[in-house]
Design a protein that fits this description.
seven-stranded mixed β-sheet, single chain, 25% strand, alpha+beta, 12 helices, Aminopeptidase, 2 domains, Acyl_CoA_acyltransferase, 369 residues, Acetyltransferase (GNAT) domain-containing protein
Length: 369
C-alpha cells in the first residue's frame, strides 16, 4: 500500500532526480549543487517548524514517487500569528501508474497543522486538484505581467529562448530598436522611448542586504495580512535570492523620494539584451506607480528588452494605464481552515507572492553548476 510521510535525508537523491527530470526538464543526473540545496532548503528551511514538514509519497515497494516541498512561513493578521505553509516543487513520478498520488499528497499537505496552505506555482493540473480540495484561486495574484522595452530585441530574445542558435539575431535588433526609440517621447505599447523617463522618475540606489531586510519589513507592514519575518530568516532569504544564473545578474535597488527617503524597492534579474525577471516590487501605499516607473527606467538604461513578473492587486492597479500586458501562467492559491482568513486575500490586502512564496529560492532560476 502507498504511504505519505515527512521528507527524510535519505530521500534527497530521489527527490533531486525527480526535480531534474520533471520540473527542470533536464537530461542526465541532477547536479550535486541541486541535491545540496534541496536538502538545505527543505530539511533546514529559514523558518523551522517541526510540525510542518515537506512530504514524500511512496510506492508500495517503498520507493519515492511523489514530493511536496513545504516551507513554513508564519503570517500575522489582526495581531494574531498564523501558522502558514508554502507548498511548491509539487511533483509525481509516473502519474499514469498512480493517478491519485498527487491528490493524496496535496490532501496530506492541507491537512497539516497550519492555518493557511499556500502556493504561487500551481500549473493547470495542480490548480484542478486544489479546487477539488476547496482551495481558493486568487486571480489578481495569479496574473503575470509583461512590459516590452525594446520590441525587436524582445522578439529576438523570445526566438533565442525557443531555439538557442537564433541568439545570433540579437545584435541585428539593436539598430531597429535604437531608431524606434528616437521617434518622440509619446508613450507606446511597443517600446519605451529615449525621452519617456528622462529626468521624470525618482532616484534609485543599490540596496545592500541589511537595508533590504529593513525595507522589506517596513513595506510589508502596510498589508493587513503579511509574513511575520524574523530578521535572521529574512537575511537568509535575501542572501539565497542573490543567485539565479538562468535569469541573469541581480538588480536590487531602493527608490528614493525627492527628499531622499526610501519609498520603494525592486528586485529583478536580467542582462542587456535579455528579458528581466522581477521577483519583488515594494512601496509605501500610494507610491506604487512612481516605483514601477523607476524600475522601468532602470531596466531600460541597462539595455534589457522587456520585464516580466508576478502581480499583486496594488501593483496591477498601478500598472493599468502604463501599457503592461497580462497573462496567466500559473495560479496563486490559498486554503484556509477558517474561511474568514480568506477575506484579506480576496480583497487584495494580503502580501503574497515573491518572498511571501517560493520565488525567492534558487529552485526557480538557478543552474546549480
Amino acid at each position: 500500500m502507498s504511504e505519505i510521510r515527512p521528507l527524510e535525508r535519505d530521500d534527497i537523491s530521489a527527490i533531486a532526480e525527480m526535480f531534474q527530470r520533471i520540473l527542470r526538464k533536464g537530461h542526465g543526473p541532477a547536479p550535486l549543487g541541486a541535491r545540496e540545496y534541496l536538502e538545505t532548503l527543505f530539511l533546514d528551511p529559514p523558518y523551522r517548524d517541526d510540525d510542518i514538514q515537506s512530504l514524500v509519497h511512496l510506492r508500495e515497494d517503498g520507493t519515492v514517487n511523489g514530493f511536496m516541498g513545504v516551507l513554513p512561513m508564519p503570517f500575522v493578521y489582526q495581531g494574531k500569528t498564523l501558522k502558514s505553509a508554502i507548498g511548491g516543487s509539487f511533483m509525481v513520478d509516473g502519474h499514469e501508474q498512480d493517478p491519485y498520488a498527487g491528490a493524496r499528497l496535496l490532501r496530506a499537505f492541507q491537512s497539516g497543522p497550519q492555518d493557511l496552505s499556500l502556493t504561487e506555482t500551481a500549473n493547470d493540473v495542480s490548480t484542478t486538484m486544489w479546487r477539488k480540495l476547496r482551495g481558493t484561486v486568487l486571480p489578481d495574484y495569479s496574473l503575470e505581467w509583461l512590459r516590452i522595452l525594446r520590441p525587436a530585441g524582445f522578439i529576438a530574445a523570445m526566438a533565442a529562448s525557443a531555439f538557442p542558435p537564433a541568439a545570433i539575431a540579437k545584435p541585428l535588433a539593436r539598430p531597429f530598436d535604437a531608431l524606434l526609440r528616437r521617434r518622440g517621447a509619446a508613450p507606446q505599447w511597443t517600446h519605451v522611448s529615449d525621452a519617456e523617463f528622462a529626468g521624470k522618475t525618482l532616484a534609485t540606489e543599490d540596496a545592500d542586504a541589511a537595508e533590504t531586510v529593513s525595507l522589506f519589513q517596513q513595506f510589508v507592514s502596510a498589508f493587513a495580512l503579511h509574513p511575520q519575518w524574523t530578521e535572521n530568516a529574512l537575511q537568509r532569504m535575501v542572501h539565497e535570492s542573490q543567485r539565479k544564473a538562468d535569469y541573469g545578474a541581480m538588480v536590487r535597488r531602493k527608490v528614493l523620494s525627492r527628499g531622499g527617503k526610501p519609498v520603494g524597492l525592486f528586485l529583478y534579474y536580467g542582462d542587456a539584451g535579455g528579458i528581466g525577471r522581477v521577483i519583488q516590487i515594494l512601496s509605501l501605499p500610494g507610491q506604487e506607480g512612481p516605483v514601477i516607473d523607476a524600475m522601468l527606467a532602470d531596466a531600460t538604461e541597462r539595455g534589457l528588452v522587456a520585464l516580466r513578473g508576478r502581480g499583486q492587486p496594488t501593483l496591477i492597479n498601478a500598472m493599468l494605464g502604463r501599457r503592461f500586458a497580462f497573462i496567466h501562467a500559473s495560479s496563486s492559491i490559498v486554503h484556509a481552515k477558517d474561511k474568514t482568513l480568506l477575506e484579506p486575500f480576496i480583497k487584495g490586502q494580503a502580501f503574497f507572492n515573491g518572498f511571501a512564496g517560493e520565488s525567492w529560492t534558487r529552485l526557480l532560476g538557478d543552474r546549480f553548476d
